[in-house]
């Protein structure tokens, strides 16, 4: 180094250390004490913010008689038929919403990227729109439709599963983002062109060529969808359908212990799902952009 | 159109391809403006032109990946203008890396065969054979991200060839590769193309590539075909100003034209048809047709000399300060050094002239 701002000078300026250390670990060692404390503090606050309520839930839901601990509340979940119905409804809606969302979004988005790229912004706008619409507005707007379905479509129209229709709209912004980012990480247009030229129909192109390469995005979109559907309260409550959150709320008035036990289980389920995707989703980043030397 | 028929060994079992007056608009952009080309069976036509002149548009139209707004495309005499891409049976190699990232090299090559319902063991064998053909038999198990750019484009070529396509389409397949690999691979593509005898459209903006590979080279400009001819003819007898200036190096030297010839640097040189032919003109003279003779009394002087292996190129300033480039064999460059005085002559090869 010929400039005064060599490694030693820089280290002195930053951390007061006068010895040049190997660059690999010098960053970590050089951090000043004040900064380290601040970082730890922030971490503690954030974790506390997340963990304290969870701890409270566990503590509360595992209270037994005379100060003992018991899992009775968890066992009791299954003694409330309403709860079982709520869980089943929500899980079924979640699955249907995932399927509906994927069937709607994946082909639309691939088609947009490949055939009408100039419409990409429009599709994005439409998909993000639900973020800007308050749930109550959505319900007021859509309630007459549900009323009509309930009256004219018999059991199907009155089923809580019809919430799928509205949930698909609610999850669009999140699913769109997840799928869009993985579509951008591959050259979707060229891959489709290649598949088409080799003789693949559109459905095959999407299923055999595009989908396997955006698995990560599809998986995150699905998990986000499940989490959202399991947590959705406002709309099902306003439309008077017994979904998980509605039942938890109602039960909370009668048996708060079981109600909290269910809430905690649902959260845990969500965490496990998130862990599963972060663990098993193929990282698009690890594939792209790695240069291999040209053999000579 | 001037045609040089493809050499006999290239007329294998290829099919003829005809572009008939193709037009394509992208909004206000008129990307193809009446493009017509005939490609003979088994021939390799290189489409050459500056970026944005419509080469990719033409190739994608042939591949069915894009539509034409007007005109027809015939393959083997059949009108395929409205056939979807997946029914055309054409092998395409793209400019961008296009291997399916989730499949090995072998699976990539076998994919088209799988779509054709070929059973697993047959298609595997065939895919392996095709990989052998492009020299990557030992890379079959690798995923695209484990291969270099050149290897990926070879696999892409194998994938395109495995389906035994009627036509092979190559859209600047080498442009992302470095110079050495590019040269190797283009020779290999040409060798394989001749061996298979497949009709091929090769699109490029690199004239060296086009001239080296094409049976004929079609020069495009602004959505139109300027000229299509064998490389030597294109180089020696350009028909339009665009071709004369775009293909190869030229010197533009002032001269006076008349009676089918031009007076330039004291020599009388025949004129090619199609350009300016009377009055003051700029004669487009190839560097190799300019002769330099070291002479104490010379009115021009050498500015710089560069050696390109067996060739030598010299920059010379004429008495009127026009700068010309001359090219000669290295052996003929004796006595040429910066500052040397030279006489400049022009060989009597026909030249194209442009209005001055
Ligand atoms: N999908 C498209 N939308 C709008 N304009 C396009 C599209 N494809 C090509 N063009 C325009 O058409 C012209 C020809 O493009 P292209 O065929 O890609 O040229 P080349 O391959 O010779 O570089 C260019 O002006 C380009 O901007
Ligand atoms: Mg192009």
Characteristics of this structure?
heterodimer; A: 296 residues; mainly alpha; MetI-like fold; 2 domains; 76% helix; globular; disordered N terminus; B: 356 residues; alpha+beta; Rossmann fold; OB fold (Dihydrolipoamide Acetyltransferase, E2P); 6-stranded mixed beta sheet; 24% helix; elongated; binds adenosine-5'-diphosphate; binds magnesium ion
Structural notes for this entry:
The complex is a heterodimer of chains A (296) and B (356). The radius of gyration of chain A is 26 Å and the shape is globular. Chain A is mostly helical and 296 residues long. Chain A is built from 16 helices and no strands. Chain A folds into two domains: 34-70, no CATH class; 81-283, MetI-like fold. Chain A has helices at 7-15, 23-30, 33-61, 72-76, 81-115, 120-132, 135-152, 154-158, 163-184, 188-197, 202-210, 215-231, 234-238, 244-254, 256-280, 284-287. Chain B has two domains: 17-241, P-loop containing nucleotide triphosphate hydrolases (Rossmann fold, 3-Layer(aba) Sandwich), CATH 3.40.50.300; 249-355, OB fold (Dihydrolipoamide Acetyltransferase, E2P), CATH 2.40.50. Chain B is built from eight helices and 20 strands. Chain B has a six-stranded mixed β-sheet, with helices on both faces. The longest helix of chain B is centred in the middle third of the chain and has 18 residues, at 179-196. The A-B interface holds A 186-187, 190-191, 193-201, 204, 208-209, 212-213, 287-288, 290, 292-296 and B 60, 63-65, 84-92, 94, 96-102, 111-112, 115-116, 145-151, 156, 159-160, 163, 169, 177-178, 180-181. The structure holds adenosine-5'-diphosphate (ADP) and magnesium ion (MG). Magnesium ion (MG) is lined by residues 55-56, 172 of chain B. Adenosine-5'-diphosphate is lined by residues 26, 29, 31, 49, 51-57 of chain B.
């Amino acid at each position: 180094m010929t400039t005064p701002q060599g490694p030693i000078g820089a280290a002195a300026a930053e951390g007061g250390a006068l010895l040049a250390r190997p660059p690999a670990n010098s960053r970590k060692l050089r951090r000043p004490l004040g900064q380290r404390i601040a970082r730890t503090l922030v971490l503690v606050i954030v974790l506390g913010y997340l963990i304290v309520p969870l701890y409270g839930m566990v503590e509360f839901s595992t209270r037994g008689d005379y100060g003992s601990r018991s899992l009775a509340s968890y066992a009791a979940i299954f003694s409330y038929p309403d709860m079982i119905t709520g869980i089943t409804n929500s899980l079924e809606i979640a699955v249907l919403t995932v399927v509906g969302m994927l069937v709607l979004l994946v082909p639309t988005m691939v088609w947009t990227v490949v055939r009408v790229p100039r419409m990409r912004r429009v599709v994005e706008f439409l998909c993000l729109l639900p973020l800007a619409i308050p749930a109550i507005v959505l319900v007021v707007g859509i309630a007459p439709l549900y009323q009509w379905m309930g009256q004219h479509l018999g059991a199907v129209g009155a089923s809580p599963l019809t919430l799928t229709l509205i949930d698909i709209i609610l999850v669009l912004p999140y699913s769109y983002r997840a799928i869009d980012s993985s579509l951008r990480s591959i050259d979707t247009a060229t891959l489709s062109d290649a598949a088409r030229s080799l003789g693949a129909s559109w459905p095959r192109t999407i299923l055999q060529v595009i989908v396997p390469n955006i698995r990560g995005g599809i998986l995150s979109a699905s998990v986000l969808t499940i989490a959202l559907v399991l947590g959705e309260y406002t709309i099902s409550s306003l439309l008077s359908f017994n979904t998980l959150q509605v039942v938890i709320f109602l039960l909370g008035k009668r048996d708060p212990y079981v109600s909290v036990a269910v809430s905690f289980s649902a959260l845990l389920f969500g965490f496990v799902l998130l862990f599963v995707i972060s663990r098993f989703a193929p990282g698009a980043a690890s594939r792209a952009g790695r240069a291999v030397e040209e053999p000579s | 159109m001037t045609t040089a028929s493809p050499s006999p060994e290239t007329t294998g079992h290829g099919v003829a391809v005809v572009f008939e007056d193709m037009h394509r608009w992208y909004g206000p952009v008129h990307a193809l403006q009446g493009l017509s080309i005939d490609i003979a069976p088994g021939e390799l036509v290189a489409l050459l032109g500056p970026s944005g002149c419509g080469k990719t548009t033409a190739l994608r139209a042939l591949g069915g990946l894009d539509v034409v707004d007007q005109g027809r495309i015939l393959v083997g005499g059949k009108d395929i203008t409205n056939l979807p891409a997946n029914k055309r049976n054409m092998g395409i190699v793209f400019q961008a890396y296009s291997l399916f990232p989730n499949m090995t090299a072998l699976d990539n090559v076998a994919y088209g065969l799988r779509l054709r319902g070929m059973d697993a063991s047959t298609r595997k064998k065939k895919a392996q054979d095709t990989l052998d053909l492009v020299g990557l038999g030992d890379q079959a198990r690798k995923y695209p991200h484990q291969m270099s750019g050149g290897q990926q484009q070879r696999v892409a070529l194998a994938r395109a060839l495995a389906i035994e396509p009627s036509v092979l389409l190559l859209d600047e397949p080498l442009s992302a590769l470095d110079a050495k690999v590019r040269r190797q691979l283009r020779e290999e593509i040409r060798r394989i193309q001749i061996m298979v005898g497949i009709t091929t459209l090769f699109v490029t903006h690199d004239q060296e590539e086009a001239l080296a590979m094409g049976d004929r080279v079609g020069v495009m400009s602004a959505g139109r075909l300027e000229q299509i001819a064998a490389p030597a003819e294109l180089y020696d007898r350009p028909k339009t100003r665009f071709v004369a200036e775009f293909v190869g190096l030229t010197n533009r030297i002032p001269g006076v034209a008349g009676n089918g010839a031009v007076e330039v640097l004291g020599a009388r040189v025949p004129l090619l048809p199609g350009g300016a032919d009377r009055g003051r003109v700029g004669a487009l003279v190839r560097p190799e047709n300019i002769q330099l003779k070291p002479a104490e009394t010379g009115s021009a002087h050498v500015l710089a000399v560069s050696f390109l292996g067996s060739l030598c190129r010299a920059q010379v300033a004429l008495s009127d300060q026009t700068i010309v480039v001359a090219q000669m064999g290295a052996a003929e460059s004796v006595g040429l050094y910066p500052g040397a005085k030279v006489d400049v002559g022009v060989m009597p090869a026909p030249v194209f002239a442009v209005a001055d």
